[in-house]
Write a structure and sequence with these properties.
Blueprint: H1 5-9, H2 12-21, E1 31-33, H3 35-41, E2 44-49, H4 59-70, E3 78-81, H5 85-96, E4 101-105, H6 111-119, E5 123-126, H7 131-145, E6 148-149, H8 156-162, H9 164-172, E7 176-182, H10 187-197, E8 204-210, H11 216-222, H12 245-254, E9 257-261, H13 263-276, H14 283-293, E10 305-310, H15 317-330, E11 334-342, H16 347-356, E12 361-368, E13 378-386, H17 390-402, E14 409-410
Parallel strand pairs: 2-10, 3-4, 3-6, 4-5, 7-8, 7-10, 8-9
Antiparallel strand pairs: 1-2, 11-13, 11-14, 12-13
């Protein structure tokens, strides 16, 4: 059977050529071992830390490959639409080649990513509600200004650039058996799958999407790209409503399987990577770890190593703090209690003294006098208490009840 257009454009030779285009700018990212995940899964697990790539994600590979392919055609500048990682990569690649760059991002794009784009010298335009809106606006601008549009995923040069991750894995992991890859528009999984399975067809390549925005499976069933309605997910870097024509065909031919993960699972994976691997990874980059921890991955191949690709680390400090705070509450290392006390002098001090006997750390106290059915001589207080875990949290609650405060409500 003759090769399709997609397979003619994206193949092992073109991926090797694209990898050479990034020499001196794209770094070979490390493989990080993880005993915790290996013991949890019963198979050897390692992490491919693309969050440590220049600009904080794998996207730099595709951007450098595309700028090299454009050559002098980029003289009037380049333009792209992105949730942030592709935008930073194109801005960085353009600056390295002295090319003007304009970037379109959704109006709700993470502030850290928007700031990074401007710091790299690109002109930033915010507007629209999704990556798809940003891509459409970027295409219009490119046509009007005679600039070169760089698609975030549905472009053969970009896909070939992302395939450099696969070439590195072939060198770094001799017993490579399975690769778990975040999937948004499909550029990363397409490039990795072609690079690896062209040489090692027995290696499994499993894609992971965020359940809140997972159009690929439905598109594969339909035989064409089909959009989903929502792109609201903590994994904003893969919040693509509609896969590309080119990437969908490559995924269908080269990928082994697709799975989805929920928002809570992604958030827990981000915290796990912070606590256990000492790595800052954004939601999109953490979906592979989320799939493993949630038991969503198919059974591992017998023997060999499974690689979880951490595709990016560009996450705002505010979101990171919120994710960590939520985890602390769910793990009951952060106990939030609301209770009524008599509105009399000294009664709050008595309550706090009870808490002090437990060895817990009081983080915050709030009086709540409105919005609750309180007696005229009552007030409510909300306490945020740091504990050592579930057993200590239970002991704190028991001490509070023993002190005569029987209606403490835990807020989660």
């Amino acid at each position: 059977m003759p090769a399709s257009a997609a397979q003619r454009l994206v193949n092992a030779a073109s991926i090797r050529s694209a990898a050479r285009a990034g020499a001196g700018v794209v770094r070979e990212t490390p493989i990080i071992t993880t005993r915790t995940l290996s013991e949890f899964s019963g198979t050897h697990i390692v992490l491919k830390a693309e969050n440590l790539q220049g600009t904080g994600s794998f996207k730099l590979r595709g951007a450098m490959a595309k700028l090299a392919a454009l050559g002098e055609a980029s003289g009037r500048g380049v333009v792209c639409g992105s949730a942030g990682n592709h935008a930073q990569a194109v801005a960085y690649a353009a600056r390295s080649r002295g090319v003007a760059c304009e970037v379109f991002m959704p109006e709700a794009a993470p502030i850290a990513k928007a700031d990074a784009v401007q710091a790299l010298g690109a002109t930033l335009h915010l507007g629209g509600r999704s990556v798809d809106d940003a891509v459409a606006a970027a295409k219009e601008r490119a046509a009007a200004a005679g600039m070169q549009f760089i698609h975030p995923f549905d472009d053969p040069d970009v896909i070939c650039g992302q395939g450099g991750v696969g070439l590195e894995l072939l060198r770094q992991v001799p017993d490579l058996a399975r690769i778990v890859v975040p999937v948004g528009g499909g550029g990363l999984i397409s490039g990795i799958a072609v690079a690896v399975r062209s040489q090692r067809p027995e290696v499994e390549v499993v894609g992971v999407q965020a359940e809140a925005c997972a159009p690929v499976a439905g598109s594969l069933r339909a035989g064409r790209p089909v959009a989903v309605d929502s792109a609201r997910t903590i994994a904003d870097g893969i919040a693509v409503k509609r896969p590309g024509e080119l990437t969908l065909e490559l995924i269908d031919h080269w990928a082994s399987e697709l799975v989805v993960v929920g928002e809570d699972q992604v958030a827990e994976a981000m915290v796990f990577l912070m606590e256990r691997a000492k790595l800052v990874v954004e939601g999109a980059g953490a979906v592979g770890v989320a799939a493993l921890l949630a038991g969503r991955l198919p059974a591992a191949p017998a023997g060999g190593t499974t690689v979880l690709v951490l595709s990016g680390g560009n996450v705002g400090a505010g979101l990171l703090a919120e994710v960590a705070r939520r985890h602390e509450t769910q793990a009951r290392r952060r106990l939030v209690l609301r209770l009524r006390i008599p509105d009399l002098p000294g009664r709050l001090a008595e309550l706090l003294a009870v808490i002090g006997t437990t060895g817990a750390n009081l983080l915050d106290v709030q009086h709540i006098r409105e919005g609750l059915d309180l007696h005229i001589q009552e007030t409510a207080v909300q306490l945020v208490i740091e504990t050592r875990g579930p057993e200590h949290a239970a002991a704190v609650r028991a001490a509070i009840e023993a002190g005569g405060y029987h209606e403490a409500t835990e807020i989660r």
